[in-house]
Amino acid sequence: MEKRLFKTVPVPKPDYESMHKIAIAEKGKRGILTAQKKRIKGEETLILNVYQVSGKNKRDISLQFRMFCQKEDYITLDADTGRWRTGALLKLVCRDYGWAEYWWDYEQLEFLTDKDALIAEKTFRKFIKSNEEYEGRAAFQLLNAYQNHIKQERLFKKHKKITDLIDADMKKFGELPSDYQEFVEEKVFGQENYIFYSTEHKRAYCTGCRNNFILENKHLRHETIGIWNNEDEVKHNRTVRCPYCNKYLQAKSEGMSRQSLISVAWSVLVQKHGEEVLTRYFCHTKDFRLSYSEPKIITFEGYRTVHTSENVKDYMWDRFKSTNVMRWCEYRDRGTCWFPAAETVAPRCVTMYNDTLQEVVEGTCMKYSVPDIFIEQVLEKSRYFKSPWIIDNYFNSYRKHPFIEQLLKVGFYKMVEEFLSDSYCNKLEFNHGCNSVLGTLGVNKYQFNMLRRLGNPRMRDLEILRYKPDLKWEDFNNVRYIHDNGHVDMYKKFIDFMQYTTIHKLTRYMTEQKIKHENDYFDYAGWLEAMGYDMRNEFNLFPRDFRKAHDEMSKQYIKFKDKQAREEVKRFNRLLKKLQKETADVEAMNLAVEDLFIRLPNKLEELKKEGEALHHCVGTYMERVKQGKTMIFFIRRRSEPDKSFYTLEWKGRVVQCRGSHNCDMTPEVKAFVTIFESKMQEYESAPAAKRRKVG
User: Fold this and answer.
1) Cα–Cα–Cα angle for 143, 144, 146, nearest 5°?
2) How does residue 306 score in pLDDT terms, banded at 50, 70 and 90?
3) Is there a contact between 470 and 425 (Cβ–Cβ < 8 Å)?
4) Distance from first CA to last CA of the chain, Å, rounded?
5) Which of 36, 179, 193, 423 has the smallest number of Cβ neighbours within 10 A?
6) Are 334 and 346 contacting, i.e. CB atoms less than 8 angstroms apart?
7) d(CA 67, CA 35)
8) 357 with 371: CB under 8 angstroms?
9) Which residues 6+ apart lie within 8 Å of 418 measured at CB?
10) Could you report the per-residue pLDDT of 527-543, keeping only the tens digit for each?
11) 360/374 Cα distance (integer angstroms)
12) Where are the beta strands (DSSP E) in 340-388?
C-alpha cells in the first residue's frame, strides 16, 4: 500500500453542525464516520474518517483515525500520533481510545449522511468476494466483514510461509521399514503379554506364543505337544510360566474385566536423507479389551527431528496455531507444570528399532559421531541418561562438541558420561577444534599414557593431571583415591603439600593417627606455616599425638592472630594520626557549618563504638577501612562533639550517610553533606602537587 501517497490526501472539511445534531440525537454515541472515495495510483480507495465527539454539549469534535481501504488490504493512520496502524477499527477505538463496544451497534450506527453510507456500502460490496452472504447488510457490518476477510488472508499468508518450510522437511521422511510392525509386536510389546484362562471351560491361551493350553488341576498342558507346567498354579493376577515359550506372564481370568488391559509404548526410528539424519518417534497402543486373542495394535507418529551439520529442527503432530488443524508443527514444550504429560502425548521411555546406527549415519553429517559406541559403552551402563530423547540429545551434543568422538574412540567413556550429564562439579573445558586427542585433553603424551593406564578415567583424573603436569604415576595413583569429603579440591591440598613431604608419608600418617577429616590436618599445617615453623621438620609435620598437638597449636594460633591484630590496629592508628596532621589544612576534612562539623576517626576502635551507639553496621567496616578500600567520617554537633550523630562513607563520592537505626539524613544534614561532597571532589580533582594523598 502507498502510505506516502495516502498522507497527501487532504482531509475534507467536516460539517460540525450536522455532526453535533447527530451526536445530540444519538445519546451514548461517541463517534461519527464520514466516507470519501479516491483513486490512488489507479486503485480504488475508500477513506473513512473517524471523529470522536466529547464535551459537555457534544461540541468537541476531533479527528481520531483515517482508514484507507483497498481491495486487498487496509491500513489506518492515527491522527494524534501520525503512526500507521494495521489493526481492525473496532479494536483500535475500543482498546486504545476507551470507546465502549456498544458504540458499534450495527443497527443504531449511522454515517454522517446517507450519501456517505451509500459510498461505503457500494465500495465494500465490490471488495468482499462473497457478496451474497452479506446481502442487505448495513455499511458498518460490511466494513467488519471486509476487515475480517483481509485478516484471514493475512493470517493465511503468514501461516503458509511457516507450513511451506515444515512441509519441505516432511517430504524428507520416507516409508517405514517393511518389518516395523513385526518389530512393534515382538520387541516393543514383547513383555506386554498375558495368559488368559477359563476354569469353567478348562482352557488357557498365551498371547505371547499364541498357543492354546488345557487347564488340568490349575496347571497348563499343551493341547497337542507333550509339554506342560505342573509347578505354577494358575490363578488371577499370578505370574505363571508358559510351557511353550517359557516366558513368565501374568494370568488373567476370562471372566474378569479387561478394561485396564491397554498398554502404551514408544519406539524411535533413525533414518537418513542425504547428509541429514532423521529421527522419528512412534506411539503404540496394544488393546486387549475387545479380544484377548487378537489384541488391537494402533500406531501413530508423534514427533520428528531433522539433524543437519549446522542446526536441528524439531516437529510434533499437533493443532497448528489458532487454525485448529491437525498437522506437523514446530515443536513446543507442552508446559505440563507439576504433572507429566499423558503417556500417549509424550514418551517416557523408547525402544530403538535400529540395531546399528553407524550404518544409518554413514555419509551424513553425523558419520563420525560413533553412536553405537555411545549406546553400548555409555548409555546402557549409565544411570544418568533416562531421557526418551537421548539419541537426539546425543546428536545435538556431538554437533556442539565434536571432540566427543575422540574420547569415545580412545575408551574414555566415563569422561563422556560426566561431561554430557553435568555430574562433575568442576566441569573442565576441553580444547575445541584440535586434531588430536592430546590437544583436546590439554595433556602431553606421558600424561595421556597415565590416563590410558587407568583404563576408563574420569574427569577428576584429568583435572589432577592438569593441576600438576609433572606428577609421577605413584603420586598420581595415590591422589586419585583421596576422597573430597565435602571439599571438591582436596587433592590440590595434598599436591601443594608435596613441597614439604611425600603423599605416601602424609596418607600413612593420617591413617595411623586415625584422622577422619583431612581438613583438620591441613588446618594444623596452615597454622604452622603462618607462625613461621620449619615445615620440613618431620617433628613439626607429624607429631606423635596429632589430636593433642592440634589443640595446642590452635590455642597458639589464636594468640598469634590476636597479637597480630593488636599490632596492626596500633600501626593503623598511627597512620590515622599522621593523616589527621597532614590534612589539618584541608577544608573538606575539617568542614564546619553552623552547628555541624566533620572529622576522621581518631582510632580504628571508634568504628565499633559508633556502630553500637547508632545501631548500624559501621563496626563491620573496620577491615575495609584498614585495607584502604573505603573512608569513614563522623558528623557531630558542636554542642555535643563526643556524641555520635551521623556516619558518612566516602569512596570518591558519598556512598551513604546514616544516623541512628540507619535513618535517612535530615534536611540540615543533607545540606551539610552536599557542601562536604563538593569540597572533597574539588580537593581530589586538584593537581597532585597541590594536595596530599589521603586514605
Assistant:
1) 65
2) very high
3) no
4) 69
5) 179
6) yes
7) 10
8) yes
9) 424, 458, 459
10) 999 999 999 999 999 99
11) 15
12) 350-352
DSSP labels for 562-606? HHHHHHHHHHHHHHHHHHHHHTTT-TGGG-EETTEEEE--SSTHH
Q: 552 CB contacts (<8 Å, ≥6 apart)?
A: none
Mean pLDDT of the chain, nearest integer: 87
With cell 453535533, the residue in question is 20
pTM of this structure:
0.72
248-253 and 194-198 beta bridge pairing: parallel
Contact between 457 and 449 (Cβ < 8 Å):
no
What is d(CA 44, CA 71) in angstroms, rounded to the nearest whole number? 8
Listed residue (380, 376, 382, 450) closest to 414, CA to CA? 382
Distance of CA 220 to the CA centre of its chain: 56
Residue 603 grid cell? 582510632
DSSP of 648-668: EEESSSEEEEE-GGGPPPPHH
Q: What is the pLDDT of residue 693?
A: 44
234 and 220 Cβ atoms separated by less than 8 Å? yes
**Which 3-state string (H, E, C) describes 394-430?**
HHHHHHHCCCHHHHHHCCCHHHHHHHHHCCCCCCCCC
| Set of cell numbers at residue 309 | 551439520
Q: Alpha-carbon distance 353 to 177, whole Å?
A: 10
What DSSP letter does each residue of 263-321 carry, written as one string?
EEEEEEEEEEETTEEEEEEEEEEEE-SS-SSS-EEEEEEEEEEEE-SS-EEEEEEEEEG
DSSP assignment of 602-635: SSTHHHHHHHHHHTSSGGGGHHHHHTTS-EEEEE
- Residues 351-398 have pLDDT tens digits of 999 999 999 999 999 999 999 999 999 988 887 788 899 999 999 999
